[in-house]
Amino acid sequence: MSRTRTLRRSGLILLSGGLLLTACSAPTASDAGGVVSTSSSPPPSSSPVTSPSSEVAGPTPTPAAPSTTAPSSPAATSDAAAPTSAPSPPGSSTAAPAADAPVPPGGPVTAADMAAAAALVDAMDVSRQAGAVIMASSADAVGTDLVSALGLGGVILMGSRGVVDGTDSGTPAQVAAVTAALQQQSPDLPVLIATDQEYGDVQRLVNGFTDFPGASELAAVSDTAEAAALTEQAAAAAGAEMRAVGITVDFAPDADIVPDRSSSAIGDRSFGADPERVAALVVAAVRGYQSAGVAATVKHFPGIGAIAADTHEELPTVTTSCTEWNDGAAVPFRQAVDAGVALVMTGHVLQPAIGVDRLPTSLSREALTDLLRGPGVGGCEPLSFTGIAVSDALEMAPVADAYSSAEAGWRALAAGQDLLLMPVDPVAAHGGIVTAVGDGSLDPARLREAAVRVTALRIAATRTPTPGLDVVGSAAHQAIADRARSAG
Q1: d(CA 442, CA 324)
Q2: Which first-to-last residue range defines the signal peptide (predicted)?
Q3: CA 448 distance to own-chain centroid
Q4: For residue 223, is pLDDT > 80?
Q5: Which is the catalytic residue, given 196, 250, 392, 425?
Q6: Helices and strands, number each (H, E), in the chain
Q7: What does the alpha-carbon distance between residue 418 and residue 390 come to, in Å, rounded to a whole number?
Q8: Which partner for 380 in 76, 303, 322, 392 could form a disulfide, CB atoms 3.0-4.6 Å apart?
Q9: What is the torsional sign of CA 484, 174, 26, 427?
Q10: 405-415 and 444-461 helices cross at what angle (nearest 10)?
């Protein structure tokens, strides 16, 4: 997902009853009137909240009995120590992560994070678990109480020409103010704040931020070892700037293989055509971002670099065989997973080699459960990924033109997604998940597994101290950018 969100705006409505109840923080009865503008956050300059959508969420669940004490969130610390204990859910003396949600190796999430997350999720009712797996657009969340109303797991910052939603000009101080206002709605545990900051062709943070080189510029450095070292340095510095303004997830780097830039919709967003070289630079970027405390994301699984069609607008087909996929497009994703990447984003394509010839891979169990996590399918070898699977934006045409928000969300979860990015109507998506659990369409254990994974990353994100705004656009960072460009 790269295009600035401009077409679809969803009305913001608020369910009553159990929607607002949570063991962590239960709003008062006076909050049940609707999603409203909040005084602590400036309204988005380009994305006003419209009237309620006709796509209404499903029946309100019966509220769970709240616990008498609210569990506190893990405190942010300056070292790498993980939380060693977690609050017990109501009526239970112990809590542990589900057996089918192992700790992602090598990444930012620890076993203690998973245990703490499992306890927090088990203390939630279905409504709050449903909110925990949704990442809404800033066009829907900024200037409203959507984060607290639904218990969102995250918000992605969007905008146009560097002007992030809720800001006048997208300066570091303004972006930091927007993220701080969003976090005020989740005082017990910070939500994930994400953005698309690939640099080069795709970047949201522009005005006052360092202009680091994009993938094609870094790939122009002829020596692979030098290119990887420069990529890691640039990503680490970029990660520090993102953390300084409150961003904890970057939907980068792009791990797509591009055989021919001139005929690819990805083009210069890719590190190139050589699978092993692309993998080396992707891994370097992942390490750089995550060393700065920003969870990295490789995209667009299972690989869309050879496609000329724009997946924002249509549903194209990946025609490679499993042998070709194993030796080509899969290589950067597999090495990023082995390096501990926190998230893998799924693209919206068909891939007949794995039996995906009707639904997009973002809604396909074959792609998400069999191929991404294992045991593989049709000769395509699995990646054995145990971190967060995140959909590309659900407002993109291959999904939004086929399914309502209420249906797309639960179907994506059932297929294996953990984090639902930018549903057209986040309230309807939330209601659809709750309804699907209630009528048996969605296994509650699958929702729990997804919520645990997302919550564990939220916990892990609290361990990185926030740098001062003086790192943003600093002379030291400009020197890193200049050195990388001059090497190419």
Answers
A1: 34
A2: 1-25
A3: 17
A4: yes
A5: 392
A6: 16, 12
A7: 6
A8: 322
A9: negative
A10: 80
369-423 pLDDT per residue, tens: 999 998 999 999 999 999 999 999 999 999 999 999 999 999 999 999 999 999 9
Determine which one of 211, 274, 312, 338 is catalytic: 312
The kind and range of the H/E element at 130 are helix 126-132
State which amino acid sits at residue 442.
L
* Residue 49, token pair as written in the block: 């909240």
Instruction: Residue 118: name the closest of 107, 131, 103, 105 by CA.
Output: 103
Rounded Cα–Cα distance for residues 394 and 413 (Å): 12
Q: Give the Cα separation of 21 and 142 in Å (integer).
A: 22
Please name the helix (run of DSSP H) or strand (run of DSSP E) that holds residue 117, with its range, or none. Answer: helix 111-122
| Other residues' Cβ atoms within 10 Å of the Cβ of residue 229 | 16
312 is catalytic: yes
Rounded to the nearest 5 degrees, what angle is found at the Cα of 465, between the Cα atoms of 463 and 468?
Answer: 160
Sequence length of the chain is 488
Active site residue 392: yes
- Does the pTM of the predicted model rise above 0.85? no
Smallest Cα–Cα separation from 50: which of 435, 468, 425?
425
Element (DSSP H or E) covering residue 452? helix 444-461
- What's the pLDDT tens digit per position in 250-295? 999 999 999 877 788 999 999 999 999 999 999 999 999 999 999 9
Computed on alpha carbons and rounded to an integer, the radius of gyration of the chain in Å comes to: 21
**Distance (Å, rounded) from C-alpha 273 to C-alpha 207?**
32
Distance CA 29, CA 16 (A): 9
Whole-angstrom distance, CA of residue 273 vs CA of residue 94: 50
Whole-angstrom distance, CA of residue 190 vs CA of residue 74: 10
Confidence of residue 313 (pLDDT cuts 50, 70, 90): confident
Both tokens of 363, joined, read 């809604």
Residue type, 324: E
